[in-house]
Amino acid sequence: MIELQHLEKQYGGTFAVRDLSLVFPEGELTALLGPSGCGKTTTLRMINRLIEPGGGRVLLDGRDTRDLRPEVLRRGIGYVIQQIGLFPHLTIAQNVATVPDLLGWDRQRTARRVDELLELVGLDPAVYRSKKPGELSGGQAQRVGVARALAADPPVLLMDEPFGALDPLARDRLQQAFRAIQQRLRKTVVLVTHDIDEALRLGDRIALMNAGTLAQFGTPAELIHRPASPFVRQFLGEDAALRQLAGRRAAEFVRPGPAGDLPAVDGELDARSALGVMLREGTGTLAVTRAGVPLGVLRWEDLGQPGEPDA
Ligand SMILES: Nc1ncnc2c1ncn2[C@@H]1O[C@H](COP(=O)(O)OP(=O)(O)OP(=O)(O)O)[C@@H](O)[C@H]1O
């Protein structure tokens, strides 16, 4: 768990971050969201002390991060940034092995770990292990960046606009891949983004910042349905509820239940389209299947919709 207590940073007398107190829950992904210049990156970098806090403190599992040497602290925290900065002269395997090498792992253990991670991020080790970063697409390089950050299995992962430089298709794919990885690994992740859809799609929680302070912290549904201020409502936009559903798959909302002869949708269908099917069919419950196998049912209220669907 990461806890910020009255964290602050000033530049030339102006607050970049001001009296920020916040708990990032363990095993969850929190999106640090907000307009340009609101202090997201400064906050993130104060967690791993790439920027020293001007005031307040950061606790990692209850421990004040000032009590650790910065390089020791950083070895226990994965860090992924937009231009991932892979070492161009090293192979992909050597890049992924950066932290295990620093930690003095033996060769076999490191090699096994590298292959395991490349597989996890969807790159065939046999094909990619010996390539150089210059031979990869942007999306592939970003996958290597994620693998490298996870190499020594750190409990905490900090990500600063990790998908920001990718074209929409590659971004979409990588977001989906990352979501699946996170569902498996359950790291404590802080993801900086100014992209509302990304925050709605990936965040278990959202910490929305405005001018160096916290505007609201909560689940996407809480921010959408109970915005704490006009700023929150305006920032998310009128159609936030539907946009959130567009980024999630029906399978994510499934609960156990008999399918009977309910209209069925595939679990891979996005939840917004599933909502459309409910409206078309005039039903509040759908059967969800995957490759024809029943997964359970999807209900109108589980999609965060008030009232009942009108046929
Ligand atoms: N090294 C610095 N020197 C002076 N001012 C800085 C410095 N770093 C950040 N700032 C200022 O602090 C504020 C917060 O910057 P920060 O990069 O944390 O915002 P951000 O929310 O991450 O923005 P973006 O999404 O545009 O990256 C901005 O007004 C920025 O201009």
UniProtKB/TrEMBL annotation:
Pfam families: ABC_tran. One of its GO terms (molecular function) is ATP binding. The keyword Transport applies. SMART domains: AAA (SM00382). Keywords: ATP-binding, Nucleotide-binding, Transport. Residues 2-236 form the ABC transporter domain. Belongs to the ABC transporter superfamily. This is Vitamin B12 import ATP-binding protein BtuD. It comes from Deinococcus carri. The lineage of its organism: Bacteria, Thermotogati, Deinococcota, Deinococci, Deinococcales. The gene is btuD_8.
